[in-house]
Amino acid sequence: MKKGFNIFGARKIAVTISLLVMAASIAIVATMGLKRGVQFVGGSEIQVKFKEPVDISDLRTAFKKNGFAHASIMQITGENEFIIKLKGKAGDETAKGSKISQRISVIFQEASKEQKTSLFDLNKTNPTDLAYLMKKDNPLKIDANKMIGENRTVYDDIAEKIVQARSDRGDFFNSMDDALATVTQPEVKAFLTKSCTLGNYIKMKEDTFSPSISSEQTEKAILAIVMALGAILVYISIRFKFDFAVGAVLALVHDVTISLGMFVLFKQEFTLPVVAAFLTIVGYSLNDTIVVFDRIRENLKIVKTVPLEQVINSSIIQTLSRTLLTSLTTLFVVVVIFLFGGLALKGFSFPLLVGIIVGTYSSIFIASPVYYFVEEHFYKEK
Amino acid sequence: MKFKILFVVLLTAGAVYYIYPPKEKINLGLDLQGGIHMVLQVEMKDAMKAELDNSKSNLERILKDEKVDVKQVKANPEQLKIMVTGVSEDKVEKTEKIFDDYMSRFNVSDDGAGDYTLSFKGAEVKEIRKQAMRQALITIHNRVDAYGVSEPIIQRQGLESNRIVVELPGLDDPTRVKKSLSEPGWLEWRLLAAPNSFKSKEDILAANNGKIPDGTAIFPSEPSANGGIVWYLVKDRVELNGNDIKTARRSSDQFGSPTVAFTLNQAGVSKFSRVTTEHRGERLAIILDKKVVSAPSINEPINTPNAQITGHFTIDESEDLAIKLRSGALPAKMTFLEERTVGPSLGRDSIRKGVRSTMMGLIIVMGFMLFYYKAAGINADLALILNMLYLLGGMAYFHATLTLPGIAGFILTIGMAVDANVLIFERIKEELRNGKTPKSAIDAGFAKAMSAVLDGNITTLIAALFLFQYGTGPVKGFAVTLSLGIVASLFTAIYVSRWFFDLRLAVSLNIKKLSI
């Protein structure tokens, strides 16, 4: 067997560093606390987009003035878009009715200097509601029987075109002529001109969670991660040996702990997609470990006289290139998601980014030493 | 070999067939196309109480008919029990027979001294829950259909829960839908016990010596246009209810005010005719969800099935009421546990960013594979493209839904899918370094890398499975794309990429050097 670097020889330093970083991670999580999203604490999250620039401090003042002192408001960098969060008790209220939602709409209306009117808002509407408006009035006098149920009518097509045009113009129409440019039927044009208006803000997204469902979500998330770990432990025990499984799962615990520590340190918010990211770390960061273990298993069959330490070291070195390469390709795409996937996916890709890097490290420096330790202490005599 | 080619070609053609045109074949989740996602809880306590009240009234009627005098029949809604007290000794046998004959849904316990406690049997509780869920699902379906939402999803969350998931693609104003789904729509006609309305509850009590007369109850009115409420003293007996209505629609009266016109069924007509004949001159209150909508006087006997409800309706309200009457009543109150609304523009933006990220991920990974593995990189890249095709084809075939996290799963698959290729290629390289010929190096590379490839992917699959089990909506979408991606990548890496190697070996049998 070829001799090379003694990577395995550095295990004591590596394990010490890892233990320190893990302790630091636990300390960070314990002191700073996990910043949980509305899904986990109950409450509302609203994303709003304004037509004209609105100052964030004005918006904050407006929320305070209307009795939402606890609202946290954040601006999406470079956009006229804001995310407003009402957590905890505020969420409790929110869950009880849509009145809060309406009060918030009034704040947006004032902040964007939108006129109060009962007309139908073409900037806010979706195709379904717009089509429904036209169907009720029926300016083209279509046979009513043809509009029942899911029959597509010319109104659906008109509505779809108007909303598509709005999306092409960056979510807002500037004038009614502009809004109705795609409408060819004069009757429809007249009807819409008469009954519609153009608002100055749109709610991009609005989520409300009642606290009763939230605490349940937290439990379920933890349970899912723990159960996945357990299932993987069983699988590796069957495919390899129990001592390998201990190494693999401790490496996973290492990866998840440090990822969580970094996650909290960088003040990321714990949401449902983040749970998905952590479960992906659990599944994926194991891949590299398995490659190394697979090689140890193979080498142990070939050479019986070489000390275990040496077998492990050469197995790590033999598989080093593939360990690094597989992580690299995955890291490429995670960086792409992080940089270009938009705000919603940013929180999701952050733990993955950390998890993949830490996972690669642990498959080289943590998994095998643990396996070695268990093997030497519990299996050696047999 | 020929069979292999045919298989891959057929599979690819199948995938393309299922995907094309992608706009119609790939289901977009609510977070991508915009819409409302709600989780509602059926308040089972309400449903049980309603059943209990029903049984209690039945029992009272039967005892009266059979001339069994008892001191009291009382329902305890908290413990879901009916208490019968003060049965005289000579009627004990008869009473117990009545319990046997008519109250078979209850366990009867003899408390001594002519007192009895009746409680629902365990199986009945289950049955009531089941029926309530069924009715809730049907009613919600009917109400949602009335709004003309295309392809709504209405289903029970899990097999045993009291929760219903409602997804309404394309809508983004939950207020009205929410109102329509949360209000049970219990409609009742009852006679007024006092001809006039009162300004407050206290006025009613004052007029009746401080206590509510037996067999009556106090109900508030719907708020009028200026928000005012009046109170009515109403008889307990329900003359007609929503079940007696065949159909209903929005209409207007002679002054053009919105009303709801309805048609009674056979049973409804005879009940209505009887009450209007016997109680001419009295007022009949129309009560919706425990609020009096209106209380018209009975001027003459009505024998026709057509009638209308007037009230302080707006056009939308009268439309909503008609929908409720048509769709039937909900078995209980609904609580909203979760409500997510995505406007139409956010979804389009997410798709745009998703497509862009996918393209960038593909270019970077494919470029890297070409750069690092040269000609063998082409194998991996072709396998990757096929992988994407199969993944999309699989999603279309299984009618899986693409969500925003699903897009992330899709991009992640690009990076993970080449992992199997990397493992195999590195192994081939190693075998080449050990002096093997290209052919045997390829054979050995695939054979020896297999166990690591399988084990690595299966652990990821295990995690994805738990995620599927745990997740709702969007997260489930991620689990689905990730799982399908893993399966597709196993197939392409082990099977398709191998086939490309074989193809190259077949072209020049005595290849000396393998570009890898």
Shape of chain B, please? elongated
Describe the sheet with the most strands of chain A: 4 strands, antiparallel
The appropriate CATH architecture of the largest domain in chain A is Up-down Bundle
* Overall pLDDT metric of chain B: 86
Q: What class, by secondary structure content of chain A?
A: alpha/beta
**Per the principal axes of the C-alpha atoms, what is the gross shape of chain A?**
elongated
- The CATH class of the largest domain in chain A is Mainly Alpha
How do the strands line up in the largest sheet of chain B?
A: 7-8-2-18
- Taking all Cα atoms into account, the compactness measure Rg of chain A is 29 Å
**Which spans of chain A have pLDDT < 50 for at least 5 consecutive residues?**
none
- CATH 2nd-level architecture of the largest domain in chain B: Up-down Bundle
Q: Strand-and-helix sequence of chain A, N→C? A: HEHEHEEHHEHHHHEEHHEHHHH
Output the number of helix runs of chain B. 15
**DSSP helical segment count of chain A:** 15
Distance between the termini of chain A: 25 Å
